Amino acid sequence: MDTSCTKPSKKMPLSSWKLVLVLILFFAVYMMYVALQQYGVFSVTNLITVGALSKAPICHMPAVSHSDAPFFHFPKPVTYNRKECACTPVHFFAILSMQRSGSGWFETLLNSHPNISSNGEIFSVKPRRSNVTSITRTLNRLYNLDWYSSAAKNECTASIGLKWMLNQGLLQHHVEIADYFNQRGVSVIFLFRRNLLRQMVSILANAHDRAVKQLNGTHKAHVHSEAEAAVLAKFKPTINTTLLMSELRRADKMGREALKHFESTRHLLLYYEDLVSNHTKLMDVLDFLQLPRKKLSSRHVKIHTEPLANQIENWGEVYRALNGTPFESFVNGDYRR
């Protein structure tokens, strides 16, 4: 008998073949995830499981420039399914402003657009801004389209954001927030007021109404009728001229610091006075958010329409205090709507 014949090789067990196939499948899914992340389909801060990835639709970026691509996102809410809008790209934004700078009016204009959801002063609630972790958690929920407010457009939102006052933790945690904006591709809209004296009048009048509630015992920061506006406009504050310069410097410094802290972000600078006098500025905002141009409207009615001389009780003192200072333009170059 020929004993030189080799013995037949043993077949690999079925369980081993299954293990090899599982490893190959896992590697393929991982490579697909890396490729999609590089093309900007998923934000770098989103946590996506392998199982969820295999079920998610593959969304392609619209025809935008390479530099704009990081600002288009495809959120996957956990509280509902975007359905046919799953591949509608979403633009993230934040309106950075100060109290009584026209941000409420501006936000209602934006929300009149069918594709914009701006969700108000989310961080007016102190626990949400208590630390960076709380701020990040809140922003993640918002930009994941899981934030519900009267402005929510649900499935087909194409631009989502919030209104954020500078004194609501924004400057305190500016380093971390600016990093978050850059990592998540959040566009910043600065909305300031050139005439800080008018802003002060509005702040004092609003504080007065909060205390006395002039409209049938109800405080209203914004009104929707000329009659209501006329009632609130009757109050003429007396301004402390001893503190006037320091208060104006403080407000001016706050705005300048915000511009400096967030200069690395994709941003647009707006002034309330320009929006009032030139409504084409609103189209610049829609272009900035890369949304179709549409006529925007608001029910807000301006409260203080008179010259400042008719709205400040001690106008003569205020005029003399500011004349010849860096802020004299506030009294010499007054405007009317």
From TrEMBL:
<protein>
    <recommendedName>
        <fullName>Sulfotransferase</fullName>
        <ecNumber>2.8.2.-</ecNumber>
    </recommendedName>
</protein>
<dbReference type="InterPro" id="IPR000863">
    <property type="entry name" value="Sulfotransferase_dom"/>
</dbReference>
<dbReference type="GO" id="GO:0008146">
    <property type="term" value="F:sulfotransferase activity"/>
</dbReference>
<dbReference type="Pfam" id="PF00685">
    <property type="entry name" value="Sulfotransfer_1"/>
</dbReference>
<keyword id="KW-0378">Hydrolase</keyword>
<dbReference type="InterPro" id="IPR027417">
    <property type="entry name" value="P-loop_NTPase"/>
</dbReference>
<comment type="similarity">
    <text>Belongs to the sulfotransferase 1 family.</text>
</comment>
<dbReference type="GO" id="GO:0016787">
    <property type="term" value="F:hydrolase activity"/>
</dbReference>
<feature type="domain" description="Sulfotransferase">
    <location>
        <begin position="95"/>
        <end position="293"/>
    </location>
</feature>
<dbReference type="InterPro" id="IPR052796">
    <property type="entry name" value="Nod_factor_sulfotransferase"/>
</dbReference>
<keyword id="KW-0808">Transferase</keyword>
